[in-house]
Amino acid sequence: MNVEEILNIQPKRGMAKTYQVKQVRELILRYHLRLGEETNE
């Protein structure tokens, strides 16, 4: 799966802004992303 989106995210120790969390959540839902799964479609 190719996800062609540009996101600005915080460094590991940074604090994400509310809108950044919403943007990431929207992408996770839109592309049905899951941690630890790898498929070659």
Give a structural overview.
The chain is mostly helical and 41 residues long. Helices cover 32% and strands 0% of the residues. The chain has one helix spanning 18-30. It is globular. The mean pLDDT is 82.
Order of helices and strands: H
Rounded Rg:
12 Å
Question: How many beta-strand runs?
Answer: 0
The coarse overall form would be globular
Which regions are unreliable across 5 or more consecutive residues at pLDDT < 50? Answer: none
Please summarize the sheet with the most strands.
Answer: none
Give the fraction of residues assigned to helices.
25-40%
Specify the oligomeric state. single chain
Count of alpha/pi helices: 1
Mean pLDDT across every amino acid position: 82
The fraction of residues in strands falls at under 5%
Span of the ends, CA to CA = 6 Å
- Helix/sheet category: mainly alpha
What's the short story on this structure?
The protein has one helix and no strands. It has one helix at 18-30.
Keywords:
41 residues; mainly alpha; 0% strand; globular
Fold topology:
Blueprint: H1 18-30
